[in-house]
Automatic annotation (TrEMBL):
Record protein name field: Acyl-CoA desaturase
Coiled coil: none
UniProt keyword Ligase, yes or no: no
Domain spans labelled Fatty acid desaturase: 81-347
CDD domains for this protein: Delta6-FADS-like
Keywords: Membrane, Transmembrane, Transmembrane helix
Organism, as annotated: Lysobacter niastensis
């Protein structure tokens, strides 16, 4: 049975059952060869990231404090020191969330047996809990990538990104909601697993919601206390400039994280899938679904570092437990395999990919009938 023409981008070729099996074997081989070479170089890399997070965070907070206090005596010091402090603190938070926390929580460094880099217990510098992220992201999203009704990351319950989603009048507001969501992204991630809609419509009791919210509320309180009370208070009467600096650093981190994640999942050629399409899914079908539900970013080593190597979202979806600093090298072979099997390897610059995301948000805010898709999108040609 061939892939339905309507749901297949023109550059994707239908694969026979034998081709799908060989496709999976070749991609599994890329992983096996990479894992066999993991060692000291990878351990040194992630420990260097830990140091970078620590030192940039310390320098950022110190400059914010020094700028706020020194600016009272030398006003010309305030603005440049404050800007430098904000940028360094934002850099620290971006590196911690994307290259350290996200990757460590995938278990990419569990082989090191370092308790500080244990994927099952790591807690990151963000309002959401590590445990909730491991459930909504590591399990749900990576298992059911872009499967409608199973992957909560499709629009995060707020946005209509794909034509298969049923339109509601609420979506007319989504251009504004998308901006608010970007600014407050860490808080949206924090409450994602609470599924507040079920509580609002009476499907989750107040007692159940209190139980679900308890660990989330504790984590939120710790983040607010640290960034918006404790560190600003250390500046004494110069509380407000330090508080504002922490707010701006967190917002910059939120905007960057939102942009990278949306570029990796919601560009023009990305597809979604029905629940029926994954019944009896083979390894080859799984790889094909990950490929068609992902998109990469070009930009070189700086983009790789700043995105937590999610500039290689395709490779991340293929190999989520492989250290992400290896994705750039793996991508050369992965792209060659995909192109040899006639499959689109979706990649492009940040402006190009994010422009497609914006187009999706604007276009699908407007009324349209949900696209009717046949359910078995991933069955091969026979």
């Amino acid at each position: 049975m061939s892939l339905p023409r309507k749901s297949t981008p023109p550059r994707n070729r239908a694969l026979s059952a034998d081709e799908l099996d060989r496709f999976a074997v070749e991609l599994d081989g890329v992983r096996a060869r990479t894992v066999a070479t993991l060692g000291q170089r990878d351990a040194d890399y992630i420990r260097a990231i830990v140091k970078a997070v620590r030192y940039t965070g310390f320098a950022g907070r110190l400059l914010l404090m020094a700028g706020a206090i020194g600016g009272a005596f030398v006003p010309a010091v305030l603005v440049p020191a404050w800007i430098a402090g904000v940028l360094l603190l934002a850099l620290s938070k971006i590196l911690e969330n994307m290259e350290l926390g996200h990757n460590v929580m995938h278990g990419q460094y569990d082989w090191m047996r370092d308790p500080h880099l244990d994927g099952k217990t790591y807690e990151w510098d963000i309002a959401g809990t590590g445990d909730n992220w491991r459930k909504t992201h590591n399990f749900k999203h990576h298992t059911y990538t872009n499967v409608r009704g199973m992957d909560d990351d499709i629009g995060y319950g707020l946005l209509r990104i794909f034509p298969e989603q049923r339109w509601k009048p609420f979506y007319l507001l989504q251009p504004v909601i998308a901006v608010i969501f970007a600014l407050l992204f860490e808080w949206g991630v924090a409450i994602q697993d609470l599924r507040l809609g079920r509580w609002l419509f009476g499907k989750t009791s107040n007692a159940q919601m209190r139980k679900l919210f308890r660990p989330v509320g504790r984590k939120m309180a710790r983040q607010v206390l640290k960034d918006y009370v404790l560190f600003p208070l250390l500046a004494g009467p110069f509380f407000l400039p330090v508080l504002l600096g922490n707010v701006v650093a967190n917002v910059l981190r939120n905007l960057w994280t939102y942009t990278i994640i949306f570029c990796g999942h919601f560009t023009a050629d990305v597809e979604t899938f029905s629940k029926d399409s994954i019944k009896g899914e083979s390894r080859g079908h799984w790889y094909l679904r990950q490929l068609r539900g992902s998109s990469n970013l070009t930009g070189g080593k700086l983009m790789d570092l700043m995105s937590g190597n999610l500039s290689h979202q395709i490779e991340h979806h293929f190999y989520p437990d492989v250290p992400a600093n290896r994705y750039a090298a793996m991508a050369v072979e992965v792209r060659e395999i995909c192109e040899r099997y006639g499959q689109l390897y979706n990649t492009g610059s940040l402006p190009r990919q994010f422009g497609q995301v914006i187009w999706r948000i604007l276009r699908h805010a407007l009324p349209s009938r949900p696209v009717a898709r046949k359910t078995r999108l991933l069955h091969s040609a026979s």
